[in-house]
């Protein structure tokens, strides 16, 4: 996968606009994290990077179309991604003591990385994070999806299965005939 790090020295004081539409930005992490997601309309990220005091403001949008499995029945769900975002990426401050420099706790969250004395902004990481955040948490093929039968695995959206209805917990059988009255 191509490296999508841009040297901070290449960002002018007036900012920089970029378009990232290389499929490798998305395909590499999808394979690495074994996500069941297929891209059917190419994903494209449009970014504007503006230097500010203490860091860089990254504004952008991600557009495209992907297919995900339904959370209940595992059928394909087409999801249109149209996400707008705004991130502030802090530049690494010089550590006051050597111990702080070696722990690297702040480096885990930062998208500004230092390599061989040169600071870079990792645009691939920003785009990937925003893409994942734009995906629905529970994709459904339709709002009233009935899911799969827990016993035979049949798709209940296609009709009822041949399994016998569950009688329920036998310990609760005493309450089965209980009638409640409203006052």
From N to C, what is the helix and strand string? Answer: EEHEEEHEEH
- Look at the helices and sheets and give the structural class: alpha+beta
The percent range for strand residues is 25-35%
Q: Whole-number radius of gyration? A: 25 Å
Show unreliable segments: 97-107
Secondary structure: elements and pairs:
Elements: E1 5-7, E2 16-20, H1 24-32, E3 38-52, E4 55-69, E5 76-90, H2 98-103, E6 112-115, E7 118-122, H3 123-134
Antiparallel strand pairs: 1-7, 2-3, 3-4, 4-5, 6-7
Tell me about this structure:
The chain has helices spanning 24-32, 98-103, 123-134; strands at residues 5-7, 16-20, 38-52, 55-69, 76-90, 112-115, 118-122. The protein is of the alpha+beta class and 183 residues long. The strands form 2 sheets. It has a 4-stranded antiparallel beta sheet, covered by helices on one side. Strands 1-7-6 form a 3-stranded antiparallel beta sheet. The longest helix has 12 residues, at 123-134. It is elongated. The protein starts with a strand and ends in a 49-residue tail after the last helix. Mean pLDDT is 86; it is low at 97-107.
In short:
A four-stranded antiparallel β-sheet has the order 2-3-4-5, with helices on one face.
Keywords:
183 residues; alpha+beta; 3-stranded antiparallel beta sheet; elongated
